[in-house]
Design brief:
This protein is mainly α. It has one domain: Cobalamin adenosyltransferase-like (Hypothetical Protein Ta1238, Chain: A, Up-down Bundle), CATH 1.20.1200. The chain is 53% helix and 5% strand. Strand 1 and strand 2 form a beta hairpin. Helix 1 packs antiparallel against helix 2 and helix 4 packs antiparallel against helix 5. The radius of gyration is 19 Å and the shape is elongated.
């Protein structure tokens, strides 16, 4: 269990931070950027919840926020699983079930959609974009030879599924796709 008695430690005043295994790294290290972006994603989802998201989506998003802390913990402690918290295939499988449940309510897309529509949908699309950025950072981190074996592949799979879920949820929150804002290719050229 985590216990925080003091909020500031002054340990990062020189631009470094500690990973979960005690290793000191620069605050701009890709690993720190990756789990920091996961934290940012959780904050955007918090805004979605705070703007009146209703059930069952509210509970789903709060559960995802909790899972994102697990993702951050996984990224913060590089290396072998051991006794440490690790993302497992069950995380992505749970998101896949949510995608299947929500996508069944939607008509197939015939055009790309623009982020927007209702306020909850717009927040969901913003969260999807932050999720994609986190995913790109994890891919970049994994590409470094010294990090390849220290990044859990299930983290990437989870973030990939989560961004898909957020896309589907954004459509659901736009009156099940009826309020989607459709892309009109070349619209500006037609005037």
């Amino acid at each position: 269990m985590v216990r925080l008695d003091r909020i500031y430690t002054k340990g990062g005043d020189q631009g470094q931070t500690s990973l979960g295994d005690g290793t000191r790294v620069d605050k701009h290290h890709l690993r720190v950027s990756a789990y920091g972006t996961v934290d940012e994603l959780s904050s955007v989802l918090g805004l979605l919840v705070a703007h009146g998201l209703v059930e069952p989506h509210r509970s789903d998003i709060v559960a995802i926020q909790n899972e994102l802390f697990d993702v951050g913990a996984d990224l913060c402690v590089p290396g072998e699983a051991g006794a440490r918290l690790r993302i497992t295939p069950a995380y992505a499988e749970r998101i896949e079930a949510l995608i299947d449940r929500e996508n069944a309510k939607l008509d197939p897309l015939k055009s790309f959609i623009l982020p927007g529509g209702t306020m909850p949908s717009a927040w969901t699309h913003l969260a999807r974009n932050v999720c994609r950025r986190a995913e790109r950072l994890v891919v970049e981190l994994s590409a470094h030879p010294e990090e390849q074996e220290r990044v859990n592949a299930e983290v990437l799979k989870y973030l990939n599924r989560l961004s898909d879920y957020l896309f589907v949820l954004g459509r659901v929150l736009n009156d099940h796709g009826k309020g989607d804002v459709l892309w009109q290719p070349g619209r500006s050229q037609q005037s």
